[in-house]
Amino acid sequence: MICTEKSDALFAESLKHIPGGVNSPVRAFRAVSGKPFFVDRAKGAQVWDVDGNEYVDYVGTWGPAIHGHAFEPIISAVREAATSGTSFGIPNPFEVEMAQLIKTFFPSIEKVRMVNSGTEACMSAIRVARGFTKRDKIIKFDGCYHGHHDSLLVKAGSGALTFGSPDSAGVPAEFTQHTIVIPFNDEAAVKKVFEANQGQIAGVILEPVIGNAGVILPKDGFLELLRELCSANDSLLIFDEVMTGFRVARGGTQERFGIKPDLTCLGKIIGGGLPVGAFGGRADVMSCLAPEGPVYQAGTLSGNPLAMAAGIAALKSLESGEAHEKLEALGAQLEEGMRGAAKEAGIPVTYQRCGSMFCGYFGNHTVHSLDDAMKCDRDQFAKYFHGMLQEGVYVAPSQFEAGFLSTAHGDAEIEKTVNAATKILKSL
Ligand SMILES: *Cc1c(COP(=O)(O)O)cnc(C)c1O
Description:
This protein is an alpha/beta fold. Strand 7, helix 8 and strand 8 form a beta-alpha-beta unit. Bound molecules: pyridoxal-5'-phosphate (PLP). The site of pyridoxal-5'-phosphate has 15 residues, from helix 4.
């Protein structure tokens, strides 16, 4: 067993001061009945805990670390920006550069506003969609996670799902009465809701590839149908690409699947590891925002120079397309190895992947929806998780989280991971 003495002591202390000992629920390892390790430092594809244990990291700070940890161009950009001041609350040139850069990656975005988290991006996108259409109802899908704000925290994925509370306490029913939730990939259900609510749907928000209930791909034609129905009903199609943006392709799911949404929510990679989010899209919709229009939205730290500098460095390193070629190849390599490991061990694992995002579900059925994901064997996953940690491989501590590769991963990491998986799966 690896030594976790210092992590355990820190966690015991943390529990006295922070609810559950953590500042975001999934970090507590409760879904796998464990205790978190505390990180000392990270570099590339590796993380070291305070007890000196080394792990190959497939969490990548939950998505942002597409270039691996402590990526030199990001560190130097932040260092340099910091010497000129850490926050101004006055427009700075970085904000213009960031907006221009986002538009080159996402041609559907004509105007964009920066915020401080993915939660804020989704919350604000919903508000501007409602303001623009002058309608209240929003369609969302089971298992999609759009952050922890009131109107979208229903049947949500990620931690909310992991802890069996996809509907949070503390959210008045009135706040979610305009949110219609339907199963992902269910064409008949979407058609029915549009028919029953004619002239009332402000927008449809979704993770076009779900990454907060494992990894769930849209069935052929599903995104196209949503696009058609939104256009036909003057409703806005909102892609929450906080996780998939800059990840599954430079221009996210919309580039990979060739669908143009009206609004897009961004986060994670866009901050290079600093707290950043953004939402943008059609100019006529975005112009409804204050000070141009009547929809209020603001932020003291929005467009923060350190965050912009980090994000710009992260995005520029994706511009040439080489990074995504590498990520795609690594994704395929890992998939092949992991499928082989499961087969050799005789354990049914359904491996689902989109580029460098992946999930191995413990079960032998394809996962098209949250219901399918719920049928997986979570006890077996928990054993696998702890076994992998002992072998020096850190995967997300929940069956319902995606794994992420970075450009810092390579043959050595994948080999270590596949060998570990083969050993652990055989022991289950
Ligand atoms: C992470 C995530 C969010 C929330 O972003 P935060 O920065 O954690 O607030 C929203 N939507 C999706 C798809 C996400 O993956």
